[in-house]
């Protein structure tokens, strides 16, 4: 028995390679989606047996059952057809390991993909594009466009071009340029360019792909951005050296979901969003002026994965996604309720609290200890120089306590 997995190209038979057409032509058994088998009818032999199946395990079962029923299965050619290219988000990656485990040898033949067709239509090279599938998988287009490269989205299911563009627009990227290719290679192919905001409310064909320009951002700067870089108002801001210590103690991972409670001007939020470049940061701030400043700093630094949440904690925390790490820079007397809300969401979350007065430090340690968390305390005292004539005087700043706590051991986030 010979099993061949083939990519049938972008849609029109003209995008199938001669090698793929030949494999389909000698196939005794054809397996795949019904629409794909119908599309290659002109290249199949008259007696071919068609098996409409797309699930990898079911395809394997079908091949095994045929082998049991046919004594001469060694002379049979089985061809499994996939759309596009067999190496780009294709079902081949799931079926091949199953075939190998079952001791069934297989060949793989590539097809011309929608990436290649889109690039040729735009007359652009695609080797530097970031390739992302939004077809039946979790996809955050905001995070993807922050990588500094053009992003090619294979769309489908619940995330078509309009839905992806809506997410970009909601994050403040409504002006980002995008290009949508509908029904590539077919006679009614359409390619349209515009902005994310323009496309957010439009309808597109289910056979669509999208190319998005990279979003402007300042990248992952070193912890402790100079205070003067931030847009400031009358809202208090965590200063550079203290902020650097907080970022270090938070030790955020690239894909973390993070809350910043009492975000002020958003200086800590901005730096956390840079650290969690493939995650999300939610900045909670009750003062309208503070929310406006956070939005301005978000745009200035291009941290589009930063979300501003107006309101007071813990009330507004209920609808937020489960956090991996939480920074509490201001609690308005609700520290215990905020910590409890965090632990209800994820009892293994890392919580970091900054405090100026000793009473807040003591309360934090007591609350963390009572909840089985290991509390770590550091005190940051920063003296800065001030020039007086041709001399320098050191000016003392208020010492700040940074308390970090987390329950010992590994665990999974609680359902929320």
- Poorly predicted segments: 410-416
Percentage of residues assigned to helices: 25-40%
Q: Report how far apart the termini are.
A: 50 Å
What oligomeric assembly is this protein in?
single chain
CATH class of the largest domain: Alpha Beta
- Structurally, the number of domains stands at 3
CATH architecture assignment of the largest domain: 3-Layer(aba) Sandwich
CATH topology of the largest domain: Rossmann fold
Task: Count the DSSP helices.
Answer: 13
% residues in beta strands: 15-25%
Q: Specify the structural class.
A: alpha/beta
Give the overall average pLDDT. 92
Verbal overview:
Helix 10 links the parallel strand 11 and strand 12. A 7-stranded mixed sheet has the order 13-12-11-14-15-19-16, with helices on both faces. Strands 3-2-4-1-5 form a 5-stranded parallel sheet, with helices on both faces. The longest helix is centred in the first third of the chain and has 14 residues. The protein has 3 domains: 111 residues, Cobalt-precorrin-4 Transmethylase, domain 1, CATH 3.40.1010; 98 residues, Methyltransferase, Cobalt-precorrin-4 Transmethylase, Domain 2; 181 residues, Rossmann fold (3-Layer(aba) Sandwich). With 416 residues, it is α/β, with parallel strands linked by helices. Helices cover 30% and strands 25% of the residues.
What secondary-structure arrangement, pairings included, does this model have?
Elements: E1 2-7, H1 18-25, E2 29-32, H2 34-39, E3 49-52, H3 56-69, E4 77-82, H4 92-101, E5 106-109, H5 114-122, E6 130-133, H6 141-144, E7 151-154, H7 161-170, E8 177-182, E9 190-195, H8 196-199, E10 208-212, H9 240-250, E11 257-261, H10 267-275, E12 280-285, H11 288-301, E13 306-310, E14 325-328, H12 335-345, E15 350-355, H13 358-370, E16 373-380, E17 383-388, E18 391-396, E19 400-407
Parallel strand pairs: 1-4, 1-5, 2-3, 2-4, 6-7, 11-12, 11-14, 12-13, 14-15
Antiparallel strand pairs: 7-10, 8-9, 8-10, 15-19, 16-19, 17-18
Helix pairs in contact: 3-4
């Amino acid at each position: 028995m010979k099993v061949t997995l083939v990519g049938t190209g972008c849609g029109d038979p003209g995008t199938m390679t001669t090698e793929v057409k030949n494999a389909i032509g000698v196939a005794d058994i054809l397996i795949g989606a019904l629409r794909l088998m119908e599309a290659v009818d002109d290249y199949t032999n008259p007696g071919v047996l068609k098996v409409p199946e797309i699930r990898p395990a079911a395809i394997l079962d079908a091949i095994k059952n045929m082998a049991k029923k046919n004594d001469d299965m060694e002379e049979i050619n089985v061809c499994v057809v996939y759309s596009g290219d067999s190496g780009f988000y294709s079902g081949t990656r799931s079926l091949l390991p199953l075939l190998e485990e079952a001791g069934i040898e297989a060949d793989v033949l590539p097809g011309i993909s929608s990436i290649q067709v889109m690039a040729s239509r735009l007359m652009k090279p695609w080797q530097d594009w970031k390739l992302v599938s939004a077809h039946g998988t979790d996809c955050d287009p905001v995070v993807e466009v922050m990588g500094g490269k053009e992003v090619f989205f294979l769309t489908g299911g619940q995330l078509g071009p309009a839905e992806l563009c809506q997410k970009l627009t909601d994050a403040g990227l409504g002006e980002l340029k995008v290009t949508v290719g509908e029904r590539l290679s077919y006679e009614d192919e359409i390619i349209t360019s515009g902005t994310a905001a323009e496309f957010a409310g439009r309808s597109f064909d289910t056979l669509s792909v999208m190319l998005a320009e990279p979003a402007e951002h300042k990248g992952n700067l070193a912890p402790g951005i100079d205070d003067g870089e931030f847009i400031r108002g009358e809202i208090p801001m965590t200063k550079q050296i203290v902020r650097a210590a907080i970022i270090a103690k938070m030790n955020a991972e690239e894909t973390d979901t993070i809350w910043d409670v009492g975000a002020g001007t958003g200086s800590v939020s901005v730096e956390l969003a840079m650290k969690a470049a493939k995650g999300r940061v939610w900045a909670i701030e009750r003062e309208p002026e503070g929310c406006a400043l956070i939005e301005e700093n978000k745009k200035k630094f291009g941290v589009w994965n930063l979300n501003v949440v107006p309101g007071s904690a813990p009330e507004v925390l209920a609808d937020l996604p489960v956090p991996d790490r939480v920074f509490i820079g201001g609690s308005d007397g609700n520290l215990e309720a905020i910590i409890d809300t965090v632990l209800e969401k994820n009892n293994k979350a890392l919580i970091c609290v900054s405090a100026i007065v000793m009473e807040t430090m003591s309360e934090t340690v007591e609350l963390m200890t009572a909840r089985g968390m290991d509390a770590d305390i550091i005190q940051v005292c920063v003296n800065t120089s001030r020039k007086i004539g041709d001399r320098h005087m050191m000016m003392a700043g208020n010492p700040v306590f940074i308390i970090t706590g987390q329950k010992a051991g590994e665990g999974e986030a609680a359902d929320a």
